[in-house]
Every structure is written in C-alpha cells, then in structure tokens.
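Justification of computing resources. Each target in the renewal requires a structure prediction run like the one illustrated here; the chain below, 184 residues long, is used simply to show the kind of job we budget for.
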Amino acid sequence: MGPMGNGTVVAVSRSGEHLFSKPNEAAIRLLAGLGVEGDAHCGVTVKHRSRVAQDPAQPNLRQVHLIHAELHEELAAAGFTVAAGQLGENVTTRGVDLLALPVGALLRLGDAAVVEVTGLRNPCAQIDGFRPGLLRQVVGRDARGRVVRKAGVMGVVVAGGVVRSGDAVGVELPPQPHRPLDRV
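Resulting structure tokens:
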C-alpha cells in the first residue's frame, strides 16, 4: 500500500452536531474553502471546540477528516470493533497510505472534489469515552520514542464536488522537498 497507489472511498459520513461519531451517508458534498456541507466542522475559521476557545479566528485546517479503512482492521485485530464514521471521519478510504502522505498532497475524490492534506488528526481523550483503551491503539510511540498518530489525516477543500462510497481516490504529491505530516 504505497502513498501513490490509487484507492477507493469506502464510506462517507457527516454530522451537523459536534458528536464523536458521524452517521454514514450515501453521498456528501465538499465545498471549496469550507469543508463538508452540513457538517459541524464546515467553515473558513476553526470549528473544533477546543481550538475555538483558544482563537476563534484561526483558519480551519481541519475541514475534512479522512481515515484509512485499514486502521479499522488493525483495531479489530486488537479487539476493537470500529465502523466507518465512528471515529468522526468524513471520508473512509482504502488502498492509500494516508499517514505517509506529505503536507500539501492532493487527494482527488470522485469526479471533482480535491482535498489538500494539512496534517494528522490528534485524537483526544474523547476516544476512550467511545471505546475504553482505544486511545492507546491510535496514538503510540515508535522505536525512537517519537509519537505516532494513526487516527487519520485532516485536510482543506481546494475544489468542491460530491463524494460517494465507491468513488476513486487519486493522489498527487506536491513538489519536493516533502514535509512529513504533523498534528494539526
């Protein structure tokens, strides 16, 4: 599973409220510069409640949340049953190594939508409220002691469009040098 490989959209999800999990939909509409139409995190400025408290004017770099379905399989092997959308992602993909993408990578979703990857999702303690012990599964440390975040990536919508389950995911890497993703 290389970052260049084309993938597939497994599920799309959204929620108009700040709920931890998002229900699956047949289709979602991405709006350029805003995010997912009808989703609580849609907007030009930050919507994540802890960030709003710090500075409500900061730009929203977390308009769309994507998780690779392979994470759900990894979690299932560790005894945690998690379905698409339950970790709050808008788009669940298969076949693309999201965590290996550099900052600025473009994900082409379906016919028209393009999401620019801005960073890693930083999962918070809410995740243990959903399934106790899950936070340890999605945030760990590598052999060198560096924090590894596996709970997907965040991005901004650079071109709008409708995204449906079964759509293709194309990856376009930015010019070198590539910057590895960090929490955003």
